[in-house]
From TrEMBL:
Pfam families associated with the record: CTP_transf_like
InterPro entries with a match to the protein in the record: Cyt_trans-like (IPR004821), NadD/NMNAT (IPR005248), Rossmann-like_a/b/a_fold (IPR014729)
Enzyme Commission identifier(s): 2.7.7.18
Family in the record: Belongs to the NadD family.
Organism per entry: Rahnella inusitata
Domain of life: Bacteria
Pathway(s) it belongs to: Cofactor biosynthesis; NAD(+) biosynthesis; deamido-NAD(+) from nicotinate D-ribonucleotide: step 1/1
Example GO molecular function: nicotinate-nucleotide adenylyltransferase activity
Function recorded in the entry: Catalyzes the reversible adenylation of nicotinate mononucleotide (NaMN) to nicotinic acid adenine dinucleotide (NaAD).
EC primary class: transferase
Protein name per its UniProtKB record: Probable nicotinate-nucleotide adenylyltransferase
Domain Cytidyltransferase-like: 18-198
Amino acid sequence: MPTIPSRSTGETASLLAFFGGTFDPIHFGHLKPVTQLAQNTGLDHVILLPNNVPPHRPQPGASPQQRLHMVELAVEGNPLFSVDPRELAVDTPSYTIETLATLRKEHGESCPLAFIIGQDSLLTLHKWHRWGSLLDFCHLIVMARPGYHEQLDTPELQRWYDAHRVTDAENLRHQPAGFIYQANTPLLNISATEIRQRRKAGLDCSDLLPDAVERYIESQGLYRA
């Protein structure tokens, strides 16, 4: 178990939490677990980071501008969320480590930063660019994903996970980076792939994503081809 450095009595740092994704499109499988996560861990705010050129998956069907607009529509009027479009401003692959390094410079060395990922991403984290440096810049908050096992692929990766894991979310506020917290979030079997497939088949998607996003998708004729 990692050692928790002490702070002055009564001192509690604000935890900045970021949630990145392709959001092609954004849906309830993104929004509802993060909302529950915020309630469970005392997060006041979550910043969504739509990425432009995802290096680990097929390229998006919607344009960067369309995906950004869908994210903005999905969280409009919800004080829990805001949107940071910085990764959409560049045409190069969106490497999380580079975004986190920039965020660390902006917020200072002592500010606790967290990056929210799904269990599926945790299991493939060792394939990310400079993955071993991620915890130098942030904490990782891991959300459950249906159908994914909990153990990492190799004993070495499992030891890395066990060495950094904490079981109390409050610990994330007492150090700028370096911890992994496994959140107890609802298991929602919703995926952007399913939504795109249902759209292509002419099926209803109203139960999978916010009304404003569905209306925009229809108005733009997205995911029909």
